[in-house]
Amino acid sequence: MTTRQSAGVTAAYAIVTCLFFAWGFITSLIDPLVAAVKGIFTLTDFQAQAAAFAFFAAYGVMSFPAAALLARLKSIPTILSALGMMIVGCLVMLAAANLAVFTLVLLGLFILASGITILQVAANPLAAALGDPRYSHLRLTLSQTFNSLGTFIGPLLGAHLFLAGIEVKEGAVVTKEIRAQALAGIDSAYFWICGLIAALAVFFWLSRRVVTEAAPLSTAGRRGIANLVVDAFSSRWALFGGLAIFLYVGAEVSIGTQMALFLNSDAIWGHSDAAFGVPLLGYAMGSDGIPGVSLQEAGKAVAFYWGGAMVGRLVGSLLLTRVKAHRLLALFTAIAAAMCLYVFAVGGVTAGFVALSIGLFNSIMFPVIFTLTLERSTASAESTSGLLCTAIVGGAVLPLLVGLVSEHSNYATAFTVPALCYATLCMFAVAAARKPKLPRAEPAAISLH
């Protein structure tokens, strides 16, 4: 490869990595958005979680079609189609904010997430292919680190734009002025996101030749959706892994989407200033001078839940060089389950810090579950990967259940649902230790949530 070609490949990889950051940022905006729509549209906890449902339901609908689309098109047309769909989703969100219609919010989120699903299916193998094959895993890990950076920044900006003045506690009143301000924040956020996506689409179009030459798509093994589904469902371990991904993503999203409401509750940080005394956390939250933690301040703290996952991913990568994957998964899931039970049984100010720390142990779960399943599934890597990506729909289903539990009890009690999920994942890790790996070629690139 010439120096000019190498520079082109590096530039193409940098643009692909921007996509990882973008979809991480957009996905994590769901957390402050759930809290915002609860106040803006005067919703119950269950109704507010419909925003998370609309977003993550797209994974259940679009994962296999996205895999089939990629099998028939080159990477660039697939990515451009995904970006186009994301732009449409943003435009619907702009209409929803200006018309103040909650159903349009749900439609916009579903369309936006459908584009992200297609983007993930196409961008992960592309990031791995852009450069020396010996360093494919390093490139993919680096790109995923930028994805985690996006999930850290998203809640900070989202809370600043969506939650100013919004309160959802019993008896709280959201005035017309505050409601208009929150809707304007949603409008502003998705307007700039739309512009960013459009710029990325133009850049990809201009660099399409360089990317195609650097990572030509294999035409071997093209299969239809029906064949992929039948193959995936023929393997018990693919189904077991799908259940594990369903429970993991459901638990992670359930905790994240209710975290701001949980921290803002009077039983946790609503009447406490303890969080402001913690370096970095207190600075990021930015005290408004009023005793206790407001919903906006709590929304900013959610960034540390996702930031913990980013740090944990780096530490976990090092631990996985010394500890077997199934053992580390068993340990992390057991700790996460215990932390959820602490929040439920003990509560109080310390429970807020414990809840934020769960993100640290979420970090390695998705990639480890993914690889443990690929290594043991009798279905093809493509079929197994499609099923596992479809199982991300757990992020749509379980938040509804958690919202229902918190609505009829409290936010601390709702942590029993993810506790059960983590306990089941611990059993998955133990079962993986007893099941030998199957001989398989190089596994498909992992699409990290």
UniProtKB/TrEMBL annotation:
Q: Which UniProt keywords apply?
A: Cell membrane, Membrane, Transmembrane, Transmembrane helix
The positions making up the signal sequence are none
Q: Does the keyword Membrane apply?
A: yes
* Pfam families membership: MFS_1
Name its cellular compartments.
Cell inner membrane
Q: Where is the Major facilitator superfamily (MFS) profile domain?
A: 12-437
CC per GO annotation: plasma membrane
**Entry membrane topology:** Multi-pass membrane protein
Q: What is this protein called?
A: FHS family L-fucose permease-like MFS transporter
Transmembrane spans:
12-30, 50-71, 78-96, 102-126, 146-166, 189-207, 303-321, 328-347, 353-374, 386-405, 411-433
Q: Which organism is it from?
A: Sphingomonas leidyi
Q: Name one GO molecular function term.
A: transmembrane transporter activity
- Per the record, the major location class is membrane
Q: So which domain of life are we looking at?
A: Bacteria
| Source taxonomy | Bacteria, Pseudomonadati, Pseudomonadota, Alphaproteobacteria, Sphingomonadales
